[in-house]
Amino acid sequence: MGDGLKGLLKDGGSVRRAAVEKVFKSLGGTWESCYFCFGEYDILGIADMPDNVSMASISLTVGATGLVEVKTTVLMTPEEIDEAVKKSPMYQAPGQ
């Protein structure tokens, strides 16, 4: 069993959630939801960060401990998609 799971067993889920909340708050973000699960991941959460650089900083710092593996997915609001569809990038498909 990894040290991260040993710590979770010792301290419990609420203590771990509070520790994670502090990390996000330290860079101006919020940890909006937290779920412990079984399967591919042990914990899933939704965070709101001021920018991708701040999230990358957290991911790199936490991942460097070797105790957890961090995977992120950027979520976009419907309004952000509205903005994206208004842009017209120049694109040529392969072979055309």
Structural description of this entry:
- By secondary structure, this protein is α+β, with helices and mostly antiparallel strands.
- The protein has one domain (3-86).
- It has 4 helices and 2 strands; from the N terminus they run ααββαα.
- It has helices at residues 3-11, 13-26, 52-63, 78-86; strands at 30-36, 43-48.
- A two-stranded antiparallel ribbon has the order 1-2.
**N- to C-terminal distance:** 53 Å
Shape: elongated
Instruction: Give the count of helical stretches.
Output: 4
Number of domains: 1
Task: Give the helix level as a range of percent.
Answer: 40-55%
| Overall mean pLDDT | 91
Poorly predicted runs are none
Structural class, from helix and strand content? alpha+beta
**How are strands sequenced across the largest beta sheet?**
1-2
The H/E string reads HHEEHH
Beta percentage is 5-15%
* Rg calculated over all Cα atoms: 18 Å
User: Which sheet architecture does the biggest sheet show?
Assistant: 2 strands, antiparallel
| DSSP E strands, number | 2
